[in-house]
Specification:
Layout: E1 21-26, H1 32-41, E2 45-51, E3 66-67, H2 70-74, E4 80-83, H3 90-99, E5 103-107, H4 114-127, E6 131-134, H5 141-151, E7 158-166, H6 178-194, E8 198-206, E9 216-223, E10 228-234, E11 241-248, E12 251-256, E13 261-267, H7 275-278, E14 285-290, H8 298-311, E15 318-319, H9 320-339, E16 343-344
Parallel strand pairs: 1-2, 1-4, 2-3, 4-5, 5-6, 7-10
Antiparallel strand pairs: 6-15, 7-11, 8-9, 8-16, 9-10, 11-12, 12-13, 13-14
Helix pairs in contact: 3-4, 4-9, 5-6, 6-9
């Protein structure tokens, strides 16, 4: 199994290894409040400034002044920043930080459109700055172990990857639909697990909650490696589901990313005397193993990865180029849903 594009490796650090990273945070909403808590707990990071034009709704600033905008945040003297503002503001805020020479991680998706995201990625590359996108699902212990096992050949050739991400409507989201907010996770993690890009996608969406943006989507597609994929994502289910299943020639890996559980079900090799079943020449259920995994908070792992990238240590941060590639697939899903056609990438 090839490595995913952008897999981290050690390089010369842009900041002194072991030195304190002076962090800024802009956006103190539902995600920003968790980033504030986590940044404060990461060894080698210090949260020195926070900003949000609507104030500190969740009371996470502590003794820090709540600054009104990105310019005042930059004025605090930062090494790096976390951007957790609404998606439509990502480009404006990230480019301001880039111009000021501040290394930056942007919450997913990288921006509102592919063009916008490409401008951000190009700017950080040209400036020689570390730019990353916060796809926290890549830091989930079940998915990290799933990827390791796939890479080790535990499933043999991978045939299919499916995801289900369903639950109640989040009041925090107003500027994008379920495809750019939630399905972007599944598209990113699928390409990462498989070590392959998307070749084509087809999508169907519905609008059931009276909002401008879609609230349900079903996606099918194929990766360049030949793996077939499907994603079921919605904001209208009373049951919260977070499941990823990789099926291959030797069995299936099932990840519950709500609990961090991972189960391997091997293909069975037990013969059967039941005529109706034995006539079917597929596989049967074999031994099942539920792995005992260290369950570290994914957001903490994500911020540690960003710190390590700044220090030049091996890191699995998601590059801005990967963020743009994921957004390109997301927009293809929406194009397919609008036109009724499969979109080739």
């Amino acid at each position: 199994m090839p490595s995913a594009p952008g897999s981290g490796s050690g390089s010369a650090g842009v900041l002194p290894e072991g030195g304190t990273v002076r962090m800024g945070l802009i956006g103190l909403g539902s995600m920003g409040r968790h980033h504030a808590r986590v940044i404060r707990s990461v060894e080698g990071m210090e949260l020195v400034a926070v900003a949000d034009p609507v104030g500190d709704r969740h009371g996470v600033a502590g003794g820090l002044e709540v600054l009104p905008d990105v310019a005042s945040l930059i004025g605090a003297g930062l090494d790096a920043a976390m951007v957790a503002v609404p998606t439509y503001l990502h480009e404006e805020v990230a480019l301001a930080l880039c111009e000021a020479g501040v290394h930056t991680m942007v919450e997913k998706p990288i921006a509102a459109t592919v063009g916008s995201g490409q401008r951000v990625a190009d700017a950080f590359t040209a400036a020689g700055l570390v730019g990353a996108v916060g796809y926290v699902e890549r830091c989930n212990p079940a998915l990290l172990e799933m990827r390791r096992l796939i890479g080790a050949g535990e499933l043999g050739e991978i045939y299919q990857i499916t995801t289900s991400r369903q639950g109640p409507f989040p009041a925090r989201i107003a500027d994008v639909g379920v495809v750019k907010d939630l399905a972007t996770h599944d598209i990113d993690l699928t390409a990462w697990l498989a070590g392959s890009t998307y070749e084509r996608v087809a999508g169907e969406v519905t609008h059931r909650s009276g909002r401008e943006h879609e609230d349900m989507v079903v996606v099918t597609g194929r990766l360049a490696s030949g793996i077939i994929v499907s994603h079921t994502v919605n904001w209208l289910s009373p049951v919260k589901i977070r499941e990823t299943v990789a099926t291959g020639e030797k069995g299936a890996l099932i990840a519950n990313t709500l609990t961090g559980d991972l189960t391997l079900v091997k293909n069975g090799d037990v013969t059967t005397e039941w005529d109706r079943v034995s006539a079917f020449r597929g596989v049967s259920e074999g031994d099942s193993t539920r792995f005992a995994l260290a369950r570290r908070e994914p957001l903490l792992v994500e911020q540690e990865g960003f710190r390590d990238a700044l220090w030049g240590r091996p890191s699995e941060t998601v590059s801005m180029t990967e963020g743009v590639n994921t957004l390109r697939v997301v927009e293809a899903v929406l194009e397919s849903a609008a036109t009724g056609r499969t979109v080739t990438l």
